[in-house]
Design brief:
By secondary structure, this protein is of the alpha/beta class. It has 20 helices and 26 strands. Helices cover 37% and strands 22% of the residues. The strands form 4 sheets. Strands 14, 18, 19, 20, 21, 23, 24, 25 and 26 form a 9-stranded mixed sheet that branches. Mg(2+) binds at residues 383, 413.
């Protein structure tokens, strides 16, 4: 287990607040939606990503802040920051971003859609012909799924489903004297039952028309409330606390607890209620009275909620409004091999997703499942595709009598249901399924294949920064290694032994494993750079990760900077380190790249007096990764693979198109602009590695 050899935490360590740093990352997503050089339909997707991210943030992080605020004062005083102060700053920044989000949508996206003859109509902009069409469509496709509920003077409780949009309807001018002059009603917008959030209207004179289903309902309110003649409708949406409250006991059924917690998630207390700014106060009061939501949970939004539904926005068959195709590339060496296992005997292979095909790992598991010489297969499943080919191969292997060990992380947030499904399938097939570990989330992405070759057991390993997920492999930028290197495969075997015996006495020749030795080994590697700098030798580090939050690692980086070590940080998301502070961090530069693909790989490079060491990892430098998760960092040892990885990292360091600093300013090269867009340059670099005469595009099989 890791040792706490660091000094006690000083109170003066300069840090950027974690919550505000995450919001800064999400703002970078919004910047992509603002960027008119990004194709229009892709900008709409960035709007959806921004909204989806913010929903999850409220369900998890803001909900956690609220729980901390409710702690007793003595307990709160032990925290490094006052959660109430943080909450106030968060809400202020969220409000600012949401206002800008609204401006981007109204003044940017809508205007640009109109320029391309795509008209997002409201209920007040319909022609007579369109009015008739919408009324018919509503009666046939939407009205059967709507059940309005009147908010009367009784104490009837109305439960708002998580992440579901509702319309609060203000009814005026009754047709009958015995009806109230004003009433409030609620109805759920049936997005799922309807099959999406948008309704495409007929094209007229090459003008394309589309409506929110919300506005279709607004226009057709007279059909729902025939006893009233005037209406106002305002959208609301609740986000509920998504933190799973699980006692991770050694005994008992964790799967049953997860399933129970998933049901609780839907009824968790509200983290926020988003409402239309035009919503009248009496309506909000009626909604609060009937839902139990307090004023503290109210957050002003816009007319429309759940912008994540813009993932479903119709593309009208206009490919020019999307990113130009970037067909998946073949791997120049693996593509030629009939047997991947035989290929792994010769050398190691480094594959870069999504530029190169994910099919190679699918082929490896399928080959191993069918190979009579393979005696055992092991894998860690963190987030898998719903129709996972890898999980199916493991099921096939178990059914054929191979010893299959699968570690299924049931606490992979928002993927629990899929993981529960595959855990059940694997258990039924006869696999040894390990449902996570007590107190530790299994986040590492490993695979191990054991083969009987002439009476000798030989191991083959797959190690990756990304999940075994065919879907996300198309949009997440990751690195993976296929290897039969004895030291590495023996270390991988040790990791799987840890899952079985849970003993922390494991020794590793090549791998860094959290929580056993990873933190201490990274500390040693940084200390070596500090020592070299103190001797006047060149000393530097390039550290790429998704998040940098752990205070002990940050303090060590500050110490390295003070010693003269040059540090380049590529941090996509949270970065709590403050760069460029004289006397503390002037030798540290921080860059973040947000572009077409999600940068997901973690790469750690240490100068080592000219004998550079390269590690690729599943772990960020967050306390949870280094102390409360099972993570693995693996070395890149083969010279040609080191050169490949370094070339890709160098392109990212030179990016002056999609790179931002910690203040979200676009990076400008000090000498002259390079106009390097690293993700596109990486694709071209990997394409150039393919020999002449070989078809560069991977064809699906």
């Amino acid at each position: 287990m890791e040792t706490n050899t660091e000094d006690k935490k000083p109170t003066t360590t300069p840090l950027i607040n974690r919550e505000l740093s995450w919001l800064a990352f999400n703002y970078r997503v919004l910047q992509e939606a603002k960027d008119r050089t990004v194709p229009l339909l892709e900008r709409i997707k960035f709007m959806a990503i921004f909204s989806s991210n913010l929903d999850e943030y409220f369900k998890v992080r803001v909900a956690t802040l609220k729980r901390l605020i409710k702690l007793k004062k003595k307990t709160r005083d032990k925290l490094s920051e006052d959660p109430a102060d943080t909450f106030g700053q968060v809400m202020q920044e969220v409000k600012r971003q949401q206002e800008e989000f609204g401006e981007v949508f109204r003044e940017g996206i809508l205007a640009d859609l109109r320029q391309h003859s795509i008209n997002l109509l409201t209920e007040n902009e319909l022609s007579e012909e369109q009015q008739k069409w919408v009324q018919t469509y509503f009666a046939e496709h939407i009205q059967p799924h709507i059940l309005p509920l009147l908010l009367d003077d009784t104490e009837t409780h109305f439960f708002l489903k998580d992440q579901t949009v509702y319309l609060g309807v203000h009814l005026f001018d009754p047709k009958k004297k015995d009806l109230k002059a004003e009433r409030f009603s609620m109805l759920e917008i049936p997005t799922k039952k309807h099959g999406g959030r948008f309704v495409k209207l007929p094209t007229v004179d090459e003008q394309r028309y589309v409506m929110f289903i919300d506005d279709v309902i607004r226009f057709c309110l007279p059909a729902l409330y025939p006893n009233y003649t005037r209406f106002e409708a305002h959208a609301v949406k609740v986000s509920r606390d998504a933190e799973l409250d699980i006692e991770e006991e050694v005994s008992g059924s964790l799967m049953a607890k997860i399933q129970k917690s998933l049901k609780k998630r839907e009824t968790g207390y509200p983290a926020r209620l988003l409402f239309d700014p035009g919503t009248p106060k009496p309506m909000l009061e009626a909604i609060m009275a009937h839902t139990g939501i307090s004023e503290d949970e109210l957050v002003e939004g816009s007319k429309y909620h759940n912008f994540r539904d813009f993932f479903q926005f119709p593309d009208f068959n206009l490919p020019e409004l999307k990113y130009s195709p970037q067909p998946t590339l073949v791997h120049p060496l693996l593509e030629k091999e009939e047997s991947l296992i035989e290929a792994m005997k010769k050398q190691d292979y480094l594959v870069h997703y999504p530029y190169q095909s994910f099919d190679y790992v699918l082929r490896l598991f399928e080959e191993a499942a069918n190979d009579p010489k393979v005696t055992a297969m092991s894998a860690t499943l963190y987030r898998v595709a719903d129709d996972s080919a890898i999980a199916k191969s493991l099921v096939k292997a178990a059914k054929s009598g191979k010893l299959v060990t699968v570690v299924v992380e049931l606490k992979a947030r928002f993927d629990e249901e899929s993981n529960i499904f595959w855990a059940g399938k694997l258990q039924k097939a006869g696999a040894n399924v390990i449902l996570g570990l007590p107190d530790l989330k299994v986040h590492t992405k490993l695979g191990l294949i054991t083969r009987n070759e002439d009476g000798q057991l030989v191991n083959y390993a797959y190690l990756s920064t990304g999940n075994y997920n065919e879907d996300t492999s198309r949009i997440y930028a990751d690195h993976a290694v296929f290897t039969s290197h004895k030291d590495i495969t023996q270390d991988v075997e040790q990791v799987f032994n840890f899952f079985i015996d849970r003993q922390h006495d494991k020794k590793f020749k090549k791998l860094l494993m959290a929580p056993i030795n990873m933190r201490d080994r990274f500390m040693d590697l940084i200390n070596r750079e500090i020592k070299n700098a103190s001797k006047g030798k060149p000393a530097s580090m390039i550290l790429k990760m998704n998040a940098l939050q752990d205070e002990r690692m940050i303090r060590k980086l500050y110490a390295a900077s003070q010693a003269g070590v040059k540090i380049e940080l590529l941090v996509r998301g949270i970065c709590c380190l403050v760069p460029g502070v004289e006397g503390l961090s002037e030798n540290i530069r921080v860059r973040s790249i947000v572009d077409r693909y999600l940068e997901h790989a973690r790469v750690y490079i240490f100068h080592n007096d000219g004998k550079e060491e390269y590690f690729v990892a599943s772990a960020d430098w967050m306390t949870r990764n280094l102390s409360r998760r099972v993570e693995v960092a693996f070395p890149i040892l083969q010279k040609d693979l080191v050169e490949q990885l370094r070339a890709i990292i160098d392109l990212q360091l030179a990016d002056d198109t999609k790179a931002r600093d910690v203040d979200n300013n676009y990076v400008e090269q000090q000498v002259s602009p390079t106009h390097i867009r690293s993700q596109y340059a990486t694709y071209e670099y990997l394409r150039e590695l393919i020999p002449e005469g070989m078809e560069p595009i991977r064809k699906s099989k």
